[in-house]
Amino acid sequence: MAQLIKLSEYVSRYEIDIYRYPSRYVRLKKERWQRLKQDWEARQKRQRLMQPWIRRDPDDPSKLRQAVSKWRKLFSSDAADDFDWELEDQSEEKTFEELKDKFRDELFRFQISWASSTVSEISQVKKSYYYDGFLRFLTQELPDTVFVMYHPVCYLKKAPVDMDVLLITPSEIWIIRHLRGSDQTIFNRESDRHWVQTKQDRKERFMNPYVDLRRMKQVLDYLLEGSDTVMPVRQAVLSMEGFIDVSKLSTKTFLYDRRTIHEFKEKLLRSSAPIKSHQLKIADKLLANSMTISSIRDNMELEEEPLDSNPENRYD
């Protein structure tokens, strides 16, 4: 699950200390999953033990309370007090897949929290980011060692430039222009300047994404100029939902759509290298030259507390 180190112009934990938070993220993620899994397995065991008693007379509340009282003695009092026996079947995940989905959703919200707040500052997040399918794909399907900068605003000299997506991996940097659409959307090239988006016979012209890629590459080259760390730069035009019906115009630019998005994912998953020092340096450089808009928190928190019941507070 890739690390969202920058989201739009929001304040980020990673820009405060890029050398601390990546390893902290991995540790907290592992601890949280182990805790959720252990709790789920304990609940499943309790349910199995309860079933014979419940089946004897499921409509008699007194019999159910007797069964609960008996089986509570098998577990610690703390665990019993925290567990809502009567509502368990209605409120808890019944399958392991449901548990994993809950964890992935919780982790996604946690990543947005870290990418929009620090201990002392906070930024107002657009609600649309919580429902952004491509952002979820990047943060949930790619490895922990991939750093994601999603819609950052970087500075070219002193001028702010809107970027689309930057991925910083241990071995390379990806510049991505994402094209939004649906399974009925087809993208075609009209000219060197424009492409056309077609959906149900409706056509809409937009800027050739290769132009956007060149602009982002220019910004990246400027920010990393003179750096003692050099990594290959890959460029891609990508549509998760739609179809790109365009001949490949450059060997330096990849085209991925709904038919080939798995190839993009597999390409990044094949990189099993751990986080590298030069990767951290490049991320630090880019974060330092990105716009941040934030305000001081109303209630200052002292330190992150990973075991809070609220996902957002847990990692604050």
UniProtKB/TrEMBL annotation:
Stored InterPro entries: NERD
Any Pfam family hit: NERD
Top-level taxon: Bacteria
NERD domain boundaries: 146-236
Name listed for the protein in its UniProt record: NERD domain-containing protein
